[in-house]
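Hello,

Our lab assistant flagged a job as stuck in the queue for most of the afternoon. It eventually completed. Since we weren't sure the result was trustworthy after the delay, we are filing this so someone can double-check. Below is the sequence as submitted and the structure that was eventually returned. Let us know if re-running is recommended.
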Amino acid sequence: MKKKFLVLKILLVASYFNTYSQSYLNIDWDSDKKISFPSDNDLYGIFNNHYVEYFKSKFTEEVYIYETRHTKTKINRINNTLDNEIIISKINISKIVDVRAKIINQDTIISYSFDEMKKMINIDDSDENYNNYKLPNLNEEDIVEIMYTVKKDFNFNGNKIIEESYPILISKFILIENNFKSNIKIYNSNNSFVSDIIFDGKKSKQIIFNNLNATANEQYSTPLANKIKISYQCYENRDDVSQIEYWGNLVQNVSELFFPKTFREKAKEILREIKHGYVKIPGNELKIANAIDEYIKNNFVISDEDDPKLNDIEYILNNKISNDFSIIQVYSSLFKEANIEYEVAISCNRYFLKFDPELFDPNQLREFLIFLPNQEKYISPNRVEYRVSEAPEDLLGNYGIFIDKDLDYYFSEITLFDQDFSQIKKNIEVNISRNLNKIKIDESRSFSGYWAITNRNYIYLSETEKTDFLVDFFTINGLDNKKVSKYNIKNFDLSHNAFNTPLEITSTISTSDLIEEKEGLTYLKIGKVIGLQSNLFEEKERINPIEINFPNSYDYNIEVNIPLGYRIVDYGKLNKSKEYFSVDGNSSAKFLSKAIVNGNKLKINIKEYYKELRYNKKRYQEFRQVINTAAKFYESYLLLEKI
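-- returned structure --
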């Protein structure tokens, strides 16, 4: 009888700990022995599974998250050293609890335990943020199966990127809720759905993705943001919080930072200093906002030190040092003192993540802007290259949450207010020597808008405005045997971004690269004077939506002095035109070049523009034709015929 009772007790204890043990302990190796998988890619994912478990300790009431990734991958070709490495992030990780690997080939199966994997950590490539495990003796045609689990402190939300740089036959996402509730949203996939299941005896949700393509890294797109991914929220049953409440709580939590209730003496003192030094006469709201922005960016230091004092506004104002986030408190304190009407917008980089107002996700709250509604302009507090103007181009077109002084909020797209903000203009004069062996090119060019902001930042980060790199970068690129004999640059200080003053560059270069002798004929490769052009020549099905960096335009005037004793007879082929019309009938993208000969001068005018941030993917061929027309002009050449 005692023996039976002991057996029953052991079974009950085993059952208890199985019920309250973490599920990653019960995930097994794959038993499928198939090793042949047809694929032209370097890597082919047989499966790539993600398990996320919200686990509440029975004894302490603490909640932890256990995240397991279980992958099986066929190696077709080793072209990258990363193909034989396992990289595990340690960011927001309390512990790596398990890492195992199995290498399968025609002859053998080699397994590596957690202890053995610890010895494979590549110290040189690992740091406080990542562990890099280097698997030994991997060969083409091997199949690698990997399981690793990390432990995290409780966080009610999370996300997983499902799509990879290689195709995957099947991928599963399993959220093991236990006694929690959850919300899950799938992005960029139209054929997957959430289902309720029991996994390892526990209440769970599952999403299955079949036949995933590799990420398409196409031009004029945001491929990382377009990856298939999952965002989720998981919370205790008693916490039934709506998305509106999450957003409302955020607004309340940042209210004092963004809209302080009290005036500060130090802010009043700084504003007096600003008005005395920057605004000599009574200024309007825009002038004062510009002065405040210029002052902060010239006098305050942004530090990356983890120091709590850098969140204290009194300390920040007195010492003129802040961290990346809290610098916005300086603006809010000074704007309150100056009685400037503003809103604060919070969003994220559109190249990595598309902001979603429908699901509260703190990962979206990466970038802070100050919006001046009366001026239709933005301030970027933590970006030294930006002044009071348009929003940063990596936020342009993304949605954000806008908060006003009354703590009312709304969601809106971050838009471009000045459609002619970004322009490149060039005046180019080409002189050909009489013996045709040398060409001199005088050029003046100007950049405005995002072109100017980006290029001024290059200069700001350089030792001088005339480094060898900058001289080459700001003169015609794509030419061999280029010699720069003259180079001047104006308006390169970052302060010029406040009024969108064009960055101006003049140069004189010489080259022999524009003349080609072929079969007794002389050709002038005139297209090269506009510089290298991107192209979409390759005939491929478009995968990603079309999204450019920013609306912009080009205006080039080219004048070629034809040498005495020669003429150009085929300049008509320089006349090119291709246009993309929006559904409203307006022209939204265009390339147009016109060439005429007047005496011994060939004159060419080029106008090119892209007025929209996004273009209809279904009309990719029309968009592609505009891009390629510019690229074909770059390839243009003329016959120089002796008279």
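-- support follow-up --
The delay was a queue issue, not a problem with the job. The result is valid. The first strand starts at residue 43 and ends at 56. Residues 2-236 form a domain with the Immunoglobulin-like fold (CATH 2.60.40.3140).
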